[in-house]
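To fix ideas, we give here one paired sequence and structure record:
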Amino acid sequence: MDPASIPYCGPAPIPGDWVTRWNLDPWLLAALVAAALIAMRQQARGPFWAGFALIVLLFVSPLCALSSALFSVRVAHHIILTAVAAPLFAFGLPRLPPRGGASLWAAAHILAFWVWHAPTPYALALASDGAFWLMQLSLLATAIGFWASLRSSSPPLAIGLLLAMMVQMGLLGALITFAGTPLYAPHLATTMAWGLGPLEDQQLAGLIMWAPAAVLYLGAALWTGWRLLGEPPRVAG
């Protein structure tokens, strides 16, 4: 295999060896240590450290290598990154004021998510370390910006944007699920060892995006609405 085409997380593993495939890239580990030190100086709260633990899980544990084999795992990886770790970061760093409104951040995140899950940019990200990190960092940064901007948004706007995020996630998931042919070239030869054909793996990825991911945004919208209903009425002074 051409070394230039090997994904950042390494060649696709097989069931017998994937649990040993920890990613101990010194540059990544150094970046994680630096981020932890900065967070401590910024007095990051508990949610940040939960998100930090998820980042270690996604990029250091064997889950990273497994995402080289299965597109469905890559999609789950991105959902955890943007819909679980990102809000934990946003609410764990109280001194993180995003510039721009929530609508702008929502649009930026939707654009990033659709671009990086199109077949050609996705294939580029698995063939180039630079493109891989551009994909991951753009998804994470726009997601953090979106979730952080919701803190200063009115509840109706926040609910509307969360529902819009849910709808677009379901739409992209449906398009991937109902595609009649495998779309993602990097996984054409990597799924069979796991008992899935490329199209089955792609359909599973679409379902993950369509259902569980959309539920996360729906849950956040419902929680925001519940908090709004629970607020005491304002008395005109």
